[in-house]
Model the fold of this input.
Amino acid sequence: MYKCHNCNKPLEELDDIRGKVGRQDVCPHCYADLHCCMNCRFHEPGYPNECRETSTAFVRERDKQNFCAAFEYKHAEEGDDNEEVDAKSKLNSLFKL
Done:
């Protein structure tokens, strides 16, 4: 199962295409960009460029679409309530201008 990094709602249509998303694809629920660092399985705060892939270019806005060739959609386990992601997305939305 795949989820949106912003609203944390399931994206059933991605299950049918094995998590493949285009650079301009958006979440059907909240319209957040899907091809972004926050949805990538390699995204990891604390790593250089917040990415476990060492060959990636610097990305300034990790919640916006990008051209990263290493992008692979993060697979969420079914029933995973990922409270940390929910809390971070709510906190980030409070500080958006």
